[in-house]
Protein backbone atom coordinates (compact mmCIF):
# COMPACT_ATOMS: atom_id res chain seq x y z
CA UNK A 1 0.00 0.00 0.00
CA UNK A 2 1.02 3.59 -0.47
CA UNK A 3 -0.09 6.61 1.54
CA UNK A 4 0.62 9.97 -0.07
CA UNK A 5 0.77 12.75 2.54
CA UNK A 6 0.08 16.24 1.20
CA UNK A 7 0.03 19.55 3.07
CA UNK A 8 -2.85 21.94 2.44
CA UNK A 9 -3.66 25.55 3.22
CA UNK A 10 -7.41 24.91 3.01
CA UNK A 11 -8.70 21.50 4.13
CA UNK A 12 -12.26 22.23 3.01
CA UNK A 13 -11.10 23.12 -0.52
CA UNK A 14 -8.92 19.98 -0.64
CA UNK A 15 -11.89 17.88 0.51
CA UNK A 16 -14.12 19.38 -2.18
CA UNK A 17 -11.45 18.74 -4.81
CA UNK A 18 -10.73 15.10 -3.96
CA UNK A 19 -14.45 14.42 -3.51
CA UNK A 20 -15.10 15.89 -6.96
CA UNK A 21 -12.60 13.42 -8.42
CA UNK A 22 -14.85 10.65 -7.13
CA UNK A 23 -12.50 9.39 -4.43
CA UNK A 24 -13.96 8.04 -1.17
CA UNK A 25 -13.36 9.85 2.10
CA UNK A 26 -12.40 7.53 4.95
CA UNK A 27 -14.05 9.24 7.93
CA UNK A 28 -12.27 6.94 10.39
CA UNK A 29 -8.96 8.62 9.59
CA UNK A 30 -10.29 12.14 9.02
CA UNK A 31 -10.74 14.98 11.49
CA UNK A 32 -10.31 18.76 11.71
CA UNK A 33 -6.57 18.45 10.88
CA UNK A 34 -6.55 15.82 8.14
CA UNK A 35 -8.66 13.99 5.57
CA UNK A 36 -8.08 10.50 4.27
CA UNK A 37 -9.08 9.87 0.64
CA UNK A 38 -9.14 6.35 -0.79
CA UNK A 39 -8.16 6.11 -4.45
CA UNK A 40 -8.00 2.31 -4.56
CA UNK A 41 -7.49 -0.67 -2.28
CA UNK A 42 -3.78 0.11 -2.24
CA UNK A 43 -3.58 3.93 -2.59
CA UNK A 44 -4.70 6.49 -0.01
CA UNK A 45 -4.11 10.24 0.09
CA UNK A 46 -3.74 11.93 3.47
CA UNK A 47 -4.38 15.67 3.11
CA UNK A 48 -3.12 17.46 6.20
CA UNK A 49 -3.41 21.07 7.30
CA UNK A 50 0.02 22.62 6.75
CA UNK A 51 0.61 23.18 10.47
CA UNK A 52 -0.30 19.56 11.27
CA UNK A 53 1.80 18.28 8.36
CA UNK A 54 4.79 20.13 9.86
CA UNK A 55 4.51 18.10 13.08
CA UNK A 56 5.62 15.03 11.11
CA UNK A 57 8.79 16.70 9.82
CA UNK A 58 12.21 16.68 11.39
CA UNK A 59 12.64 20.05 13.11
CA UNK A 60 15.23 21.24 10.58
CA UNK A 61 12.74 20.71 7.71
CA UNK A 62 9.78 22.56 9.25
CA UNK A 63 11.01 26.13 8.53
CA UNK A 64 11.35 25.26 4.84
CA UNK A 65 7.75 24.13 4.49
CA UNK A 66 6.12 27.54 3.89
CA UNK A 67 8.83 28.46 1.37
CA UNK A 68 8.23 25.27 -0.59
CA UNK A 69 5.14 26.71 -2.32
CA UNK A 70 5.57 26.53 -6.05
CA UNK A 71 8.35 23.95 -5.79
CA UNK A 72 7.35 20.46 -6.84
CA UNK A 73 8.99 17.98 -4.56
CA UNK A 74 7.01 15.08 -5.97
CA UNK A 75 4.97 14.29 -9.07
CA UNK A 76 2.25 11.74 -8.31
CA UNK A 77 1.12 9.51 -11.17
CA UNK A 78 -1.99 7.34 -11.45
CA UNK A 79 -2.63 4.68 -14.06
CA UNK A 80 -6.02 4.82 -15.80
CA UNK A 81 -8.06 2.07 -17.42
CA UNK A 82 -8.68 4.07 -20.62
CA UNK A 83 -8.04 7.36 -22.38
CA UNK A 84 -11.63 8.28 -21.50
CA UNK A 85 -10.78 7.90 -17.80
CA UNK A 86 -7.83 10.29 -18.28
CA UNK A 87 -10.18 12.87 -19.80
CA UNK A 88 -12.81 12.32 -17.09
CA UNK A 89 -10.31 12.83 -14.26
CA UNK A 90 -8.89 15.94 -15.96
CA UNK A 91 -12.42 17.40 -16.24
CA UNK A 92 -13.33 16.47 -12.67
CA UNK A 93 -10.11 18.03 -11.39
CA UNK A 94 -10.83 21.40 -13.02
CA UNK A 95 -14.52 21.32 -12.03
CA UNK A 96 -13.52 20.43 -8.47
CA UNK A 97 -11.29 23.46 -7.93
CA UNK A 98 -8.00 22.28 -9.41
CA UNK A 99 -6.35 23.27 -12.66
CA UNK A 100 -4.96 21.63 -15.76
CA UNK A 101 -1.20 21.42 -15.24
CA UNK A 102 -0.58 19.78 -18.61
CA UNK A 103 -3.39 19.18 -21.10
CA UNK A 104 -4.01 15.57 -22.04
CA UNK A 105 -2.28 14.39 -25.20
CA UNK A 106 -0.60 11.37 -26.77
CA UNK A 107 3.17 12.02 -26.52
CA UNK A 108 4.05 8.49 -27.71
CA UNK A 109 2.20 5.82 -29.68
CA UNK A 110 -0.03 3.88 -27.31
CA UNK A 111 0.21 6.41 -24.46
CA UNK A 112 -2.31 9.07 -23.47
CA UNK A 113 -1.64 11.31 -20.50
CA UNK A 114 -2.38 14.60 -18.83
CA UNK A 115 -1.72 16.22 -15.49
CA UNK A 116 -3.70 18.37 -13.08
CA UNK A 117 -2.88 20.33 -9.95
CA UNK A 118 -4.97 20.29 -6.80
CA UNK A 119 -5.87 23.59 -5.08
CA UNK A 120 -2.52 23.54 -3.22
CA UNK A 121 -0.50 22.99 -6.40
CA UNK A 122 0.26 19.28 -5.92
CA UNK A 123 0.56 17.75 -9.38
CA UNK A 124 -1.15 14.50 -10.36
CA UNK A 125 -0.33 12.89 -13.68
CA UNK A 126 -2.95 10.52 -15.11
CA UNK A 127 -1.98 8.14 -17.88
CA UNK A 128 -3.31 5.29 -19.95
CA UNK A 129 -1.05 2.95 -21.90
CA UNK A 130 -2.44 0.71 -24.63
CA UNK A 131 -1.28 -2.80 -23.67
CA UNK A 132 -1.03 -3.85 -27.34
CA UNK A 133 1.17 -0.89 -28.25
CA UNK A 134 3.42 -1.57 -25.26
CA UNK A 135 4.12 -5.11 -26.53
CA UNK A 136 5.89 -3.65 -29.50
UniProtKB/TrEMBL annotation:
Residue ranges of coiled coil: none
Domain of life: Bacteria
InterPro entries: Glyas_Bleomycin-R_OHBP_Dase, Glyoxy/Ble-like_N, VOC_core
SUPFAM superfamilies: Glyoxalase/Bleomycin resistance protein/Dihydroxybiphenyl dioxygenase
Domain VOC per the UniProt entry, residue ranges: 1-129
Protein name as annotated: Glyoxalase
Native organism: Zhihengliuella salsuginis
Lineage of the organism: Bacteria, Bacillati, Actinomycetota, Actinomycetes, Micrococcales
Amino acid sequence: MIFVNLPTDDLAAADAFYGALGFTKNEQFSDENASSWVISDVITIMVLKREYFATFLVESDAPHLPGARGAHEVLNALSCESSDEVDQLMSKAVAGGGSAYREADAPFPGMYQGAFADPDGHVWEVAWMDPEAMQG
